[in-house]
Amino acid sequence: MLYPYAISRESVNGHRVWIAKSLHLKGCVAQGDTRLEAIKELESNEIAWLETAKILHIPQSN
To answer: Gene3D superfamilies given for it (predicted)?
Structure first.
């Protein structure tokens, strides 16, 4: 994980999932059935977020 994140358990359409949100990259989130799944997905999403931000010249801070 490159940046700090928050993780919580939430109900989405009646299904309990873990939500991981980057505290640094606006809109970078992930979900999973387990904490580990959500964190691993967020790691992947961080990379994609940063690559896209570089291409589109989007600042990396909130």
So the answer is: 3.30.160.250
